[in-house]
Amino acid sequence: MSHIAHELQRAFREVRSYSLELAEPLSPEDQQAQSMTDASPTKWHLAHTTWFFETVLLQRHSPGYRYFNDDYPFLFNSYYEALGPRHERAQRGLLTRPTLEEVYAYRRYIDEAVLAFIDMADAQTLDQIAPIVTLGLHHEQQHQELILTDILHAFSCNPLMPAYRRVQAQPSPASSGARAGAKPIEWLYRPGGIVEIGHRGRGFAFDNEAPSHEVLLRPYEIAHRAATCGDYAAFIADGGYSRPELWLSDGWAIVQRERLEQPLYWHRSADRCTDDPLSWLVFGLDGLRPMDPHACVSQLSFYEAAAYAQWAGARLPTEFEWEAAFDAPGIEQMTGHVWQWTRSSYDPYPGFRPLPGVAAEYNGKFMVGQLVLRGGSIATPRGHTRPSYRNFFPPAARWQFSGVRLVRDI
Amino acid sequence: MSHIAHELQRAFREVRSYSLELAEPLSPEDQQAQSMTDASPTKWHLAHTTWFFETVLLQRHSPGYRYFNDDYPFLFNSYYEALGPRHERAQRGLLTRPTLEEVYAYRRYIDEAVLAFIDMADAQTLDQIAPIVTLGLHHEQQHQELILTDILHAFSCNPLMPAYRRVQAQPSPASSGARAGAKPIEWLYRPGGIVEIGHRGRGFAFDNEAPSHEVLLRPYEIAHRAATCGDYAAFIADGGYSRPELWLSDGWAIVQRERLEQPLYWHRSADRCTDDPLSWLVFGLDGLRPMDPHACVSQLSFYEAAAYAQWAGARLPTEFEWEAAFDAPGIEQMTGHVWQWTRSSYDPYPGFRPLPGVAAEYNGKFMVGQLVLRGGSIATPRGHTRPSYRNFFPPAARWQFSGVRLVRDI
Amino acid sequence: MSHIAHELQRAFREVRSYSLELAEPLSPEDQQAQSMTDASPTKWHLAHTTWFFETVLLQRHSPGYRYFNDDYPFLFNSYYEALGPRHERAQRGLLTRPTLEEVYAYRRYIDEAVLAFIDMADAQTLDQIAPIVTLGLHHEQQHQELILTDILHAFSCNPLMPAYRRVQAQPSPASSGARAGAKPIEWLYRPGGIVEIGHRGRGFAFDNEAPSHEVLLRPYEIAHRAATCGDYAAFIADGGYSRPELWLSDGWAIVQRERLEQPLYWHRSADRCTDDPLSWLVFGLDGLRPMDPHACVSQLSFYEAAAYAQWAGARLPTEFEWEAAFDAPGIEQMTGHVWQWTRSSYDPYPGFRPLPGVAAEYNGKFMVGQLVLRGGSIATPRGHTRPSYRNFFPPAARWQFSGVRLVRDI
Amino acid sequence: MSHIAHELQRAFREVRSYSLELAEPLSPEDQQAQSMTDASPTKWHLAHTTWFFETVLLQRHSPGYRYFNDDYPFLFNSYYEALGPRHERAQRGLLTRPTLEEVYAYRRYIDEAVLAFIDMADAQTLDQIAPIVTLGLHHEQQHQELILTDILHAFSCNPLMPAYRRVQAQPSPASSGARAGAKPIEWLYRPGGIVEIGHRGRGFAFDNEAPSHEVLLRPYEIAHRAATCGDYAAFIADGGYSRPELWLSDGWAIVQRERLEQPLYWHRSADRCTDDPLSWLVFGLDGLRPMDPHACVSQLSFYEAAAYAQWAGARLPTEFEWEAAFDAPGIEQMTGHVWQWTRSSYDPYPGFRPLPGVAAEYNGKFMVGQLVLRGGSIATPRGHTRPSYRNFFPPAARWQFSGVRLVRDI
User: Fold this and answer.
1) Cα A330–A333–A338 angle (5° rounding)?
2) pTM of the predicted model as reported, rounded to 2 decimal places
C-alpha cells in the first residue's frame, strides 16, 4: 500500500473521529435540536458529512457500492441540486429518526467502506479519489466548526443556559473567546503596492481561493491584535447601539427592529446597580460567565463589526489588506481566535472557475450577498485554514465565532 | 387512611403511569421534537403535567414544600398568567435540558410528594385537595391524548414516516381510525323540544360544562355513525376540494392558499395509474397504511368537516343536538372513535363561572374563535369523557383525531 | 307605472345619491387610498356597489344588457365565487384606473339602466326583481358605513390626521362618538324566559336574521346606556391594558404583541404632566379632538369590550339578551350610536337557509370565527337596521364604530 | 449677477420643470399609489426632491427661512437619520394629504425661495451653496428615473395595464426598451492591465465614484451591445428558469419560491398554441405590446442577468471591466438604453470618504448587500450619468430598467 494511501487513511481516521469527539458531551436530545433554519442539529452534521463521502466518493467511484439506506441521500443532502432533491432545511430538527445510534452505525459503515476502498485502490484510482477524499475531509472540518456554533446557539435558547463543556481550571485561549491580551492596539504600517493574493503552491485549497492574482493596495495600518470584549464594551457604553451615524443602513434597520443593545450572547449582569461598563455576562462554550475584557469579542455581525470600526475612527480591512498583512512583524491572532470580518463582499476572483463535477456547487453559487471573513476561530479545527482561506457569511449573521480587527488609512 | 384517600392514590398512580406507558415506544429524540407551535414535545407534556401538581397542589397546599428545581416553574408553565412568566411556546422543542432522565426523576419526586401528602392529609385537607388532584388527573389525561396527536404530527413531518407502534395482528377499532362498519348511514329521528344540556350529577366535570340549562331544539335526524374514510374519499372524488360553494369562506381561503387536496395525513397511492377513488394511503399511529374505507375519517379541520357535510346534503350538529342524541337508540360511535366537530362556537353557557383560583384560566379564557367537538377518540384515555364533555379547537386545526357525524333538518 | 315601481325608484335614487354625498368631502386621492387589506378605497366602494346592480340584476335579468366595461366585473367583484374570478383584495388601492371620473360615469350608466329597467318591467318581472333591487340597496347602505369607517382608518394613518368633515358648531350625537349622557348606568331588569328571536313580519331582512325562533333566557339586568369614553378611561387608568386576568387569551396575546395601551384612535394628550385620567385625544370624523367623557366609546375590538366588561364586574350580553331588551322601558342608545359587541359567536340560526342564487354567498359563508354586533352606529345610514339585525366582525377588528353595553346576571 | 449664479438658476429651472413634465400624464390618483415598499408615489417623489432643497439648502443656509409647512420635514424625509424622524416608508401611499395641488404649491414656494436665494447670494455664499444646489439637482434626476420605474410598477399591478404614454408613431430607442439592433454580438478585445477607475476631472460626481484609483485587469472580451429580448427569449426557451445549475443559490431559491418563469413584465401571448419562442408580450411605458426581439431586455434582476450570462457561456463584467471598455471602438449602448448589472458588489473604493455634513448619508451607508449597475437607461435624464457613475440595487430588484451586457475571459 502506497504512502499516499496510508496518509489518506490516517487523515481520514483523524478527522472522522474528531467529529465524534465533538459530539461526545452532547445527549441524543442535544444532538436533535435545531434552533433556527440557519443552524443544524449535531446529528444532522454527523450524517451529512458522512453522506458527502457516500454520494460524492463511493456512489460515483466505488464499483458496486450499495447505499447504507436508500432514504439517506434525500435526508442528508444539504444543497446540491445536481445530487437530487432533499429534505427541507428548516425541518432538520424533526428527523428524530434515524436515531443517533443509527447515524453512528451509518458513520461506521461508510468509514469502513472508504478505508477499504482506499486499501484496494490502484494508483490510477488513487489519483482520482485522493482529491475527493481530501475535499470531504475539509468539508467535514467546516461542519466541525458548525457543530460548535450551532449547539452554542441551541443552548443559548435554553433558559438554563447549559455549558457545552465544564469550566476549565486554567483559563485558556479558548474560553468564551480567545484572550487578546491587555496590550493596547499597536498600528502596524503596511506599504501596499502590488501584492499577490490567493492560494499558491501545492497544498489543498478551495476553489474560491483561486486563481491567485495581483491586487494593488494603498498603504495602510493594521491593528496588531483583534478587538477585545473590553474594547467592544466601551463602544456600547458610548452609545454604540443608539447612534445611527455609526451604522450601515441595513444594520441600523435591524438594530431598531430587533431592539438590539449588545451582541447576541451578551447579558447584562444581574447586579444592575453597577455603573461598571464591563459588568457583562457572556455566554459561550463554558456557559454563562463574567465577561473577560481581554478576550476577543466574538459572535458579532458584520454590521456590528463595521459600526464598531466606525466608532473607533478606523475601518474594516479588505480581504486583500488582511491577507497581505498575514505575516507582518508583530501581528498576532491572525488565526485560532476569531474569524475577522472584512470589508470585502464575497465576489469571485478574476478568472474564478468552480470545481469540476458535483463539487461545482460547493462555493461559487453562494457568491452574492455575503461578506468575507478571514482568519479562523477557537472552534476551527487545527490545520484547517490558510492565509488565503475565505470564509463567508451574510452580514446579519451573529452566531459565528466572528470578531473584528481594525485597519486605518494613512 | 380514608377510602377517599385510597381511591385518590389509586387514581393518581393509574393516570400517572399511563403517561409513561404512552411515552415508552419513543426514543429520547422523539420525545424532544416539536413539529409546530401548536404541538409540544412528549417530554414537555410529561413535565408540564407534573408541574401542574407541583404548582397548583404542592406549592400552594403542602406546607414547607420545596421545588424540585427552581427553574422548572418557568419552563413548564403552559399558559397560566397567574402562575408567573413562562418559556415561549414555540421554543419548547429546544429544551434539550433538562434531559428525559431528569424529567423522569422530576415525575418520581412529585409522585412521591403527592402520594405522601395524601397519606398525611387530615379530613379537612383532603376535602380541600381532592378536587385539585382530580383536576390534575383529568388535565393529565388531556395531555395523554395530546402526546399521541403531537407525536403523530412530528412523525408525519419525517419522510421516513415512522410508526408510533407496530402494526397489530388483529385489526382493532383503534387502527388508523376506528372502524365505522360498512353499514350505510341510518338517519335517527330526534324530536327536539326542551332538552337539558350540560353536566348534572356528582362526578367530575370541567367548568365549561356547567351550568346545566335547558335549550330548545327543533326536530332533526342524526346519522347513526360517524363518516368513514370511504365516505370522505367519495367527497374528494367528486371535486370536494375544488368547489368553493361547499366551503366556508375562511376554509376556502386556506384550501387555495395551501393548495389542499386531501386531509393532512392522506397520501395518493404510489400507483397513480389507478382510477380507484379509494386508492389512498393514510398515515396513523401504525404508520402509512392503505386507507380502510370503513374506518372513521379523522384529522379533519372544521372547514373540511363542514364542506363534507354541505356536499352530503346535510349539516353538522349543534353541540346541543349532539348531546341530546347521545343515548338515542341505534346510535353508535359517540365516543372512543373520533372527536366530532359540531356547528357550535365555543361560547360560555348561560351563567358560566370559571373555576376558582388559578384554575380559572383553565377553560374560560379560550372561549372565542374556537369550535366545540364532542365525543372522544381512539386517543382519548378510557373514562376521560362524558356526554356533556366539550372539547374545542380552532376551525383550521387538522392534526387532531377529529371527524364528523352528520345531521339534517326535517 | 305601479306604486311598487315608483317606490323602488325613489328608494334607489335616494340610496344611490347618498353614497355620492358621503364621498363629496373627499379628494380623488383620498378615495384612492387603501390603508389595510380589511379596508377598501372609497372609489372601490362606489364601484363595487354599482357592480352589484350590474351583475346580480342587469346582467342576469335585463335582456340584452351590455356591460359598461368588460373588465369591471373582474375589478369590482368582492368575494362572490359564483360570479367569477376577481381582483386581489389587498391590491384595491392600486386601481388608479379607472379614474374617479370613470367610476362616476359607471354609476350614472348603471343608475339609468336600473331605473329604465324598472320603468319597463311588467308586474311579473317587477315581482322578480324588486327583492334584488332592495337587496342591492341594503348592500349599498352597508358599504356607506364602510366608506366612513375605512376613510377614517386611512386618515388615522396620516400624521396630519385630517378631518373627514369640519368641526360642527353644535356638538351633535354624531361627533367622534355619540354622546351617552352623563347619567350613571341604570340596570334594567329583564325577566328572561322564552323569547322570540329573529326577523318576523314583511319588511326586508337579511337571510342571517331568519328563521325566527324561540330561545330560553335566564333573567338578567342590562345597562340602560352604552359605555362612555369616560367609563373606558377609568378602565385604562385602573391598569386595564396590563392585567391579563381581565382578557381572553387571544386578546391578551394581541395586547402584548402589539403593545396596546388604548383604543386604536386614542392618543395621549400632549400635556403629559397631567395625571388627569380623562386627558385623552380621540380621532374621529371631525379630526383629533379632546375626549368627550360622555360620548359612547367606539372603535373597540371584541377583546377590548370583553375585558372592559370583566373589569366592570359585568359581562357582554348574548345577542338574544340584547334583542330581547330592545324595547325595554328606559333603555337608550340601542341604535344610531355605536354597534354593540355581543358575547355570541356568529353562528347560523336553527334552520338557516342562505338566500337563493348568487346571493347565497352574502352571509352564510362567513359564519365562523366572527362575533355578532347589534345596534347600529352614527355611521349607519338612517333606516338601515332593525332590532333583529346581525352585524358581525372578527374579534380583533378595531376600526369599526363598535362599542359596548353591559349586562349582568342576577 | 454672476455667470455661476445664472447658470445655477438655469439648471435649477430646467431640472425642476422636467419633474413636472414627467408627472403630467398622471392623474392625482396615479400619483398617489404606492405599489410596494420599494417604490414611492409620484407625488411623494415631487415632494421629497423639494424637501431636499428646503432642508439641506434653505433651512441650513438661508437666514430667516421659514418652513412651508412644519409637518413636511417629517413627511418627506426619505432616510436621513441626521435630519430627524420621518414617516414610515411603506405608508407613503396613504398620504392623501397634502393633496397634489398642495405639493405643487410647495414646489412653487421652494422654487421661488431657491431662485431668490441664489439671486441675493454674495460670491462667498455662492461658493458655499453651489455644490448643494448641484447635488440637489442630481438627486432630483435620480428621482426622475424613479418616477418612471415606480409608476410602471404601479401600472403593472393594475389588470387594465394602463400605458404611461401613448404609443408613439415612430418606433424610438425608448419604446419598451431601447432597440439593440439585429446584429449578432461582436466580441471586442480589451487588453486589461492597470486601468484608472473612478471620477477624475472637475465636473460633478457622487462621492461613491471617488477616489479614482488604479485597478489591475486581466484581458477580456466584451459584447459590443447589450442583450436583447430575443436573446433572453432563447434563454427562456432553453429552460433557463428550470435549470438550477445556471443560477446563484439565492436566485434559484427565489425562482422556486415565486415560481418565476420570465421577467417581471413579460406575459405569455394569449395565443398559447404557438410554439414561437418569441411570442411574448412585454409591459412598458407604452403599455402591453408584442415583444420587440431587438429591444434591450430590461427589468431583470441581478440573478436573472447572471443566470442568462451563465447560460450564454459568458459572465457579467466587473464594474472595472465595464468602465475600462466605455470608449472601446465599436462599443454601443453603453448608456441611454438599460442599466447593466455588473458582477461587482457595491463596496467602497479604497480611501472612500462620504460627503461632508448631512449628505454623508447619501451613498456610503448603503454599501453592503447591493450590486453595481453601470450605464444609464431610457428613463435616465439626459446628461445625468458618466462613465464612472455607480448605480446600485439589491440583487433581487426586478423593477428597474436593468439589463445585461456580457463579457468573457480569454
Assistant:
1) 160
2) 0.95
